[in-house]
Description:
The chain is mainly α. The chain is built from 33 helices and no strands.
Amino acid sequence: MIKAEYVHEALRKEGQYPLGLLENRQYESLEQFFNQLWNSRQDKSLFQWESDWFAYPYQMFSEMFLNQGPQALQHLDEWSNAYPDSFFPYVMKVRYWAFWASKYRGGSWANQVSEDMWDCAREAQKQIYATAMQALAFSPKAWTVTIHLLNAAAKLEEPKWFDKWLFKQKKPQNLKHAIKPSLQKIAALSGLSTDLALVLPEQIPEILKPYIDLKAELNMPQNEAAFWLKVFLDQSKFGLVAAIDYCWYLLPRWGYSYEEITQFVQSDWCEHFTEIEKNELNFVMWYDSVEDSYSDDQTGEIKKHIQIALDLLKRPLSEKNRAKIYLRLAYFYTLLNPSDPKILDCYVHTFTHEVFDEYDLQRAIDYWFKYAKSSDFLGEIAISNRKTLASAAVLYGLLAQHGWSGVEKNPLVAQSWFEFAKSLERPKAFPEGEYCCFYRVYKSFHELESYPDVIDMLHSASELGYVNPSFTSGYIHSREDSSLYDVDIAKKYSSKAAEQGHYIAMYNMGVNYLNRGIKDTESHPFPLLKQSLDYFEQARIGLEKSRKDGTYEYQELEDDIIDLYADRLYHYSYYPELGDILIPQLITHGWQRHIKAMSALARLYADQANRPHYFNYADAVKWCEAARLQAPENDDVLEAIAVVESDPMKKILKYQFTVDKIPVEEMPGRQDVLF
């Protein structure tokens, strides 16, 4: 049995890095921590120290950098002012801009990054170079920032103004940020603006002067990145972490080749590395050669790569890299046979390493849930990854809640990890927040019989502000075939999801109020109908915006809302507060050839008895004929024709006469002839 540990117990026991220091302005504690980390180089292997130096700050600051960017910048400046002799705030400021340049650039192929994101990445890159030069001018101990220059040079190419400043001593004139209006929203996330200063030191940092002539002498793939690699290697007297990054930029996806990685590993640049350290570099191409984008019907290719992975395990590798290979093998075996016992054996070899991403963890949960519930492997995986992966923190909480997979049962411990997950992954608005860390864990338990196992977790997540758990809770409690069926609880969570911006929840709440408002027994329908329309409009406007932004599209739901306007709410358009919103939407969608909207408008403008303020026979005919031309056999259209045309021959002639007077360009739904 694995003892269930509260968050503070686990963090204190492992004692790697503290959280919340920058958010809470604990600058003295930050100084103490980074002094200890800097000086720990004497007590660790050089590779371990380099890895920790870059990994720990990322875990400590990335959440604040991402969600409170400008405030994080302010706190870094305050830290620097509080400790004017410290180079740590300078280094962390470079890290901040490297973080945002990477976020803007993203991990997609270059042609999949939008122009706005490219522009923001290049603006953040300006800050990387300026703040890195300030850091190096302040103290040569800030040499670790050169790894960020290596990455920026490879991903974004070195700016010409910087090249002239460093190698030709030509100071750029009027160096500033160029933020177009279209960039302002995403630029503001990091604090980028035209007012943000870009300041280079008066002189080239002393630490770089010996390298001024090196750039012209180098003849390396990724030459600009290689320059900064050389600086890092010299200053660190080791530099394996930077060399690994450099090898990554020599992969075929960057336009280079495995052969160039091999040549680099065998060159003088790497002669100070041991054989197993060189294998860390070779592992970049070895791991890349084990493809991970197969479907389960590509049996031959999958088997081929299983053999490649098994051959890699025969090489001298670090234990962490071995774990990565076993994780990839688990994926391959899953594609061939999801219940294969070899999958469990693979997971056993990953226990003690933080090598899981969200997809890997999802597959592990699925395997445990379907085929290995008696095994403790999932608990071990959750423990190894709970401090860095939000879904793993949620998973550990769920296991502790029930006493599953060897983890001691303790619901209070579970709650502490649910809350900790929020520090790793903040709740986001819908639709971005749809697939949150809680939902990713819930996915394996989405069948009816498993609802009782996850409902408390979903309730906790809802209270923490996550939108999808609110929506899912409402759905579970609304199912009449569920043991958790409860109308009041369903409404509570559906309402909460709607408040949190979930479009489907807004629609459902709108339907709920609409059904109550149209009951024959309802003596005061207007407040209910108005509330219904408010929900529908929130959903419609949000859906339209998300579709245009390219962040979310659900055309069927958009159409359903207009269908409800045309089928049901239209009948209550005599309330001005409803009609003033409904009718313009029906007109807009009528022009877009929405049949129900066209038919409703035809009936509306023909209804002289009940809606005299809307009556307009010409408009009624126009919309009726437009609908008939689109779908002459449609039931809604036939009903509209019956209302507008009526039976007497005189009215039919009047209808046809009115049709003949409508200019072609004024006929809704008209499609231009293509020549």
